[in-house]
Amino acid sequence: MAMNDELKKQLVQQLGAELGVKRESKDARFDSSTGTLYANELRNYAVSLIDSEQFTKGKAYDGVGDIANGMMRIVDDNNRPSNIHLEDYDFEFHLHVPK
């Protein structure tokens, strides 16, 4: 089922508002004709919601590389890479955020 253009426009505007992205800024540009956000540099990060031997509650961990198969690679507190699934409830994920 195809999404009508007005609904698509509203959803894209809402997403931009939730991300706090200005329509035009030095860091990002929004193309309303395609619904695409262009940014000079985007980053992915995960905020830990738990305390453990590997992670500290409230600490933001930068994503390393691309997201593949629903997994984000981050470096834990022990300087070891860990693959975290985007549906892991122990983390809050922030994807494609302008730096």
Describe this structure in words.
With 99 residues, the chain is an alpha+beta fold. 15% of the residues lie in helices and 36% in strands. It contains 1 helix and 7 strands. It has one helix at 5-19, and strands at 28-31, 36-39, 42-48, 60-62, 71-75, 81-85, 91-98. It has a 3-stranded antiparallel sheet with strand order 4-3-7, with no helix packed on it. Strand 5 and strand 6 form a beta hairpin. The protein is elongated, with a radius of gyration of 16 Å. The N and C termini lie far apart (35 Å). 11% of the residues are buried.
Share of residues in helices: 10-25%
Radius of gyration: 16 Å
Largest sheet descriptor: 3 strands, antiparallel
Q: Which band does the percent of strand residues land in? A: 35-45%
Q: Structural class, from helix and strand content?
A: alpha+beta
Q: What is the count of helical runs?
A: 1
Mean pLDDT across all amino acids: 80
User: Number of DSSP strands?
Assistant: 7
Briefly say what this structure is.
The protein is an alpha+beta fold.
